[in-house]
Design goal:
single chain, alpha/beta, 6-stranded mixed beta sheet
Length: 247
């Protein structure tokens, strides 16, 4: 029998989003298959993070629909999307500064656990998964940028997502920490996770993404493998110089 492609885990259909007359996303459609890593690329102001906000429920779109795991979630609140299996991290990490690493991850675990003991058990698992076991009792304000990125991923994973939106996982991280973060994302995928990543670093995109979508001024301009995107004339003109500057 022929192989039948699985239904997309995420479908974004004709999303438009404006702020004060400025169009941030213009009729954007995309799909993400189960187990895939999709990268959103583009210069600053392209609409990538706004797309994440719309998918995560921070902003309601002016037009279009979001279908997640077969359900229309366009008007579902962020906490409902989290319970449905959609999680995200932020470009600028937002830990609870006065809580420990373990306590921060427990906050995510409590989305699915009524018991503090079970939430703590889950938190320890994810803290260990991201390589922060030796920092579990350290206050979040004492972490490096790379450690905060790992904490964000642990807290998101503790909500038991099917899809994780990763916003600039290597942004602001020193070069020697990047290979470890790449390996961590690959390990998360090995756990069965589907990911959409925003990333400027072309080397990271090449190592992680199956497919990339290039955006500019809210418009989807190109789609393909990272290698195909890197050869696209408009991408070369608009972006690759900037991407090189980002490392």
């Amino acid at each position: 029998m022929p192989n039948v492609a699985p239904d997309p885990l995420l479908k974004v259909e004709g999303i438009t989003m404006s702020f004060g007359g400025i169009v941030a996303i213009d009729d954007l459609s995309l799909t993400v298959a189960p187990g895939e890593i999709l990268s959103l690329m583009g210069p600053n102001g392209a609409g990538k993070t706004t797309t994440f906000h719309v998918i995560a429920g921070v902003h309601a779109p002016d037009a279009g629909r979001i279908i997640f795991d077969g359900q229309d979630i366009t008007r579902v609140k962020p906490d409902g999307r989290c319970r449905a299996g959609l999680a995200r991290t932020f470009q600028i990490t937002q830990p609870f500064q006065e809580l420990t690493v373990e306590e921060n991850v427990m906050v995510g675990a409590l989305a699915h656990n009524g018991s503090m003991a079970e939430a703590r058990k889950d938190a320890r698992r994810y803290v260990d998964m991201v390589g922060l076991a030796d920092r579990a009792d350290v206050l979040a304000k004492g972490l490096s940028t790379g450690q905060r990125k790992r904490l964000e991923m642990a807290r998101a994973m503790a909500t038991r997502p099917k899809l994780l939106l990763l916003d600039e996982v290597t942004g602001g991280v020193d070069q020697k920490s990047i290979p470890g973060l790449i390996e961590l994302v690959q390990r998360l995928r090995g756990e069965g996770l589907t990911l959409v990543i925003i990333e400027h670093n072309m080397r990271v995109i090449n190592e992680l993404a199956d497919r990339a979508i290039f955006m500019n001024r809210g418009v989807r301009m190109a789609e393909g493998t990272p290698a195909e995107i890197a050869r696209h004339p408009e991408v070369i003109e608009l972006y690759l110089g900037e991407a090189t500057e980002h490392g």
